[in-house]
Design brief:
Elements (H helix, E strand, L loop, with lengths): L4 H4 L5 H9 L4 H4 L3 E6 L11 H14 L3 E6 L5 H4 L8 H19 L3 E6 L4 H12 L3 E5 L6 E3 L2 E3 L1 H12 L5 H10 L12 H12 L14 H20 L3 H4 L2 H14 L4 H12 L6 H10 L14 H6 L2 H11 L15 H5 L25 E6 L2 E8 L11 E5 L2 H9 L7 E5 L14 H9 L7 E4 L10 E4 L4
Helix pairs in contact: 4-11, 6-7, 7-14, 8-9, 8-20, 10-13, 13-14, 13-15, 19-20
Length: 482
C-alpha cells in the first residue's frame, strides 16, 4: 500500500529523512501525511504557463489542512502549437506519459494523496488517469480558461485564427485583417476558450466527481482561481482523512454523469476517447453502446463554441457547470447520489444552486433544448465496422452524399484545401492517420478550419481515422475503426 510512512519512519529511513531536511523540512513536517502536488506547467503553451504559481496555492491549502505538500512537474504538449505538422503525432501519446510520470513520482516517493493541476488538452485526462490508476485520495483542479480576444465587438478564440487562415487563402480576408485576428485572439494565460477539449474535460472533471464544484469555468487569471486551487488542497487532505479514494468516486454511474455532461454541453469528441481511457484505469467497463444509450436521452442545452455562440467565460458568468448540472439533475438526467471530491454527493453539492434564468441565452432548459438528443454521436457502417464519431453541435446536415477526395496524410489534404482544390459536395477522406497508421492519431484542425474559413464548412464532409480538435465544427467524422 502506498504510504509516506514507508519512506520516513524507522532507523533505516534516516538517510531519507536527511534528504528531506536538505529541502527545508523538519521532523514535524515529516510526521505529517505527504501530499503530492503535480502540475504540467511550462512555457510551451499559454494553457499551462501559470500552473507553477497556482501550485503554490494548492501547497498552501495542503499545509493549512495539516499535511506536508511536495510539488513536482510533468510534461504537457501544446495541441495548438503542435497542430498541422509532425508534432501532432506527439500529442495523444503525451497523455499516457503524463499519467505514467505522475504514477511513477507518487509510487517512488510514496505520497499519501495527490492534488493534480492541468491546463492543456492531454494534461487533463492524463492527470485523472494517474489518479484512477494510483487510487490514492486525489483532487483534480483545472488551470482555467483563457479570456476571449475582442476585435470589433466580436469574441475570438484561437480557432478563429485557424479559420482566418482559410479565409485568407480563399481570398476572402486581407493579410492585415488576419494579422489583427492573430494579435487579438489569445490575450492571456489559460486554455482555449470555447467548449473545446480542455474545457470539455474540465467540465467532465466536475461531473465525474474528481474536481470541486464550480472549479471548471472561472478563467485562468480570475482571482477566484487561486481560491479554487487553495480549496482543492484543503479538500485533498479531507479526502485522505476520510479514507475516500478515486475508486469510491469513479463508479459506472459517475461515468454516466460524465457522458451526460459531454452531450449536454456539445463537448469535444476527444471526450469520448479520454473517458474510455479513464474508465480503463478505473476498471469500469464502458463502451460505445453506453455512449449512444446516454446520448439519446440527453438533450443538448448549451450554446457553446465551436458549434454555438458562447465561450467558457460567458458560461461562468451565469453559474458555470454547477448550473448546467443542477438543471440536468432536476430533470432526472444525473445520478445525484454519486460521491465527489467534497466528500459529499452530487445532490449535496448542488442543493443551494439556483435555477437557469430565462433572461440568459447560453443554457436552455432540458425540456426546450437546442437539440433533443446529445451531440457526441457514435456511427457504425461499412466504412467503420468498429465505430466512428461525429460531433453534431452546430451541424445542420444529417445526411451527406458526395465525391470522395482521398489523401494519405493530413499535410496533403491541407495543401489541397489551401489551393482551393476542395469544392462544394466533396468528401475529404484522410486515411493512415490512426493510432497505428499515423502513428499518433493526429487532430485535423488545420484542415477542417481551412475549409470552414473558405466558407465550405456547410458544404463539404470529412472522414478520417484520425482525431479532431475540440475546436472543429462541421460534418466531420473521425476515429474511424479499423
Amino acid at each position: 500500500m502506498i504510504s509516506s510512512r514507508n519512506v520516513v519512519e524507522g532507523v533505516s529511513r534516516a538517510p531519507h529523512r536527511a534528504m528531506y531536511k536538505a529541502m527545508g523540512l523538519n521532523d514535524e513536517d515529516l510526521a505529517k501525511h505527504m501530499i503530492g502536488v503535480s502540475h504540467a506547467g511550462n512555457e510551451a503553451t499559454p494553457c499551462n504557463i501559470h500552473l507553477p504559481s497556482l501550485a503554490k496555492e494548492a501547497k498552501r491549502g495542503v499545509s493549512d489542512a495539516g499535511a506536508t505538500p511536495r510539488e513536482f512537474g510533468t510534461i504537457a504538449v501544446s495541441d495548438g502549437i503542435a497542430m498541422g505538422h509532425e508534432g501532432m503525432k506527439s500529442s495523444l501519446i503525451s497523455r499516457e506519459i503524463i499519467a505514467d510520470s505522475i504514477e511513477l513520482m507518487v509510487r517512488a516517493h510514496q505520497y499519501d494523496a495527490v492534488v493534480g493541476l492541468a491546463g492543456c488538452d492531454k494534461s487533463l485526462p492524463g492527470t485523472m488517469m494517474a489518479m484512477a490508476r494510483l487510487n490514492v485520495p486525489s483532487v483534480f483542479v483545472y488551470g482555467g480558461t483563457i479570456m476571449p480576444g475582442i476585435l470589433d465587438g466580436r469574441e475570438l478564440t484561437v480557432v478563429d485564427v485557424y479559420e482566418a487562415v482559410g479565409a485568407y487563402n480563399a481570398g476572402n480576408l486581407s493579410l492585415e485583417s488576419l494579422k489583427n485576428i492573430e494579435d487579438t485572439a489569445c490575450p492571456s494565460a489559460g486554455s482555449c476558450g470555447g467548449m473545446f477539449t480542455a474545457n470539455t474535460m474540465a467540465s467532465i472533471s466536475e461531473a465525474i466527481g474528481l474536481a470541486l464544484p464550480g472549479s471548471a469555468s472561472p478563467p485562468a487569471e480570475d482571482p477566484r482561481r487561486e481560491k479554487i486551487v487553495y480549496e482543492s488542497g484543503v479538500a485533498c487532505v479531507k479526502l485522505l482523512n476520510s479514507g475516500i479514494r478515486p475508486s469510491d468516486i469513479l463508479t459506472f454511474e459517475a461515468f454516466e454523469n460524465a457522458i451526460t455532461i459531454l452531450n449536454a454541453l456539445g463537448g469535444s469528441t476527444n471526450g469520448i476517447l479520454h473517458l474510455l481511457a479513464l474508465a480503463g484505469e478505473a476498471n469500469i467497463k464502458l463502451d460505445y453502446g453506453d455512449f449512444e444509450r446516454i446520448r439519446k436521452k440527453t438533450p443538448h442545452i448549451a450554446d457553446m463554441k465551436p458549434g454555438g455562440n458562447y465561450v467558457m467565460n460567458s458560461l461562468d458568468k451565469i453559474g458555470g457547470i454547477p448550473l448546467v448540472m443542477k438543471s440536468l439533475l432536476n430533470h432526472g438526467l444525473l445520478h445525484g447520489d454519486c460521491l465527489t471530491a467534497t466528500t459529499g454527493t452530487i445532490s449535496d453539492n448542488l442543493k443551494d444552486m439556483g435555477s437557469v434564468s430565462p433572461q440568459q441565452k447560453i443554457i436552455r432548459m432540458p425540456n426546450a433544448p437546442l437539440h433533443p438528443q446529445g451531440t457526441a454521436n457514435i456511427l457504425w457502417g461499412s466504412l467503420a465496422p468498429e465505430g466512428a464519431v461525429i460531433k453534431t453541435a452546430g451541424v445542420q446536415m444529417t445526411n451527406f452524399t458526395g465525391k470522395a477526395k482521398v489523401f494519405d496524410r493530413e499535410e496533403t489534404a491541407f495543401e489541397s484545401a489551401s489551393k482551393g482544390d476542395i469544392s462544394e459536395g466533396d468528401v475529404v477522406v484522410i486515411r493512415y492517420e490512426g493510432p497505428k497508421g499515423g502513428p499518433g492519431m493526429r487532430e485535423m484542425l488545420s484542415t477542417t478550419a481551412a475549409l470552414v474559413g473558405q466558407g465550405l464548412g456547410k458544404h463539404v464532409a470529412m472522414v478520417t481515422d484520425g482525431r479532431f480538435s475540440g475546436g472543429t465544427r462541421g460534418f466531420m467524422v473521425g476515429h474511424v475503426a479499423p
